[in-house]
Amino acid sequence: xxxxxxxxxxxxxxxxxxMLDDNLKRLLSSCKDEINxxxxxxxxxxxxxxxxxxxxxxxxxxxxxxxxxxLYFKNICKELDITPNIVCGHSLGEYSALVAADCxxxxxxxxLVNKRGILMENCTEGSMYAILNTDINVMVERDNNIFxxxxxxLDKNGKGFLGISKKIDDSSFILVSYGxxxxxxxxxxxxxxxxxxxxxxxxxxxxGDANVKNLSGPLSIAQFSGRSLEMGFSYFxxxxxxxxxxxxxxxxxxxxxxxxxxxxxxxxxIIFGSELPxxxxxxxxxxGIALLGxxxxxxxxxxxxxxxx
Length: 309
What we know:
single chain; 3 domains; two-stranded parallel sheet; Malonyl-Coenzyme A Acyl Carrier Protein, domain 2; mainly alpha
């Protein structure tokens, strides 16, 4: 399965004070001029210090979420060394996606959503409706041709989610299959990519370029596994393969208690012709247990924060 990376940007409602963390603030220096030129207020100060009443004003909320989304996007792409294939968004998130794709500048994006928010604040009447589980006829003009088809407005657990999707047509799917040789080559290529990515992330954690909040434990893995299984069995197998590669790389780290630690012992024996002194082995074992325990505590803490926040 080829790896495709997609980013979906959120709409209004996810704002909160202090949502620009230290990693994002490192990126602010490169775009402060654009922020100041596009808005008539100090957006960064409001995000950091409030008051929350100001941050919740639509004309301020929307630039705040767009800026935060854009900075998260840049930070993730930098840390993981990735380039997305697709960017899209919900409502306000569509503007964030346009900025992320370099279709419009950050300055223009902030200015647009600020004016959009002002217009929305001035709409004193009107309501938003969600029409659930209903078939509708859609007419589309594309390249001077008119197409008609039936679409269904989605109902997700009766909670008022509104979306439109075309009815599934098997003829629109393309089955891609590879021979044995091509499959092995692509598998080796993907394994190499994820191995290098895992080493890069470990290096960035050690140097402080990546936040320890990126560590995930068994609770997050179980959650992601469930979601991938909902998407399809092939996605679930793909996730298992990624986890296997990551765990294999971690197991080879030169930490006592892991296979990588034993390889260090064996290398010492080959070079010096004798085992590492027992006292040093005991100290190394203690350090290894403490280090692994610390990593597990951080991972479990991050899991609980993600799940219950």
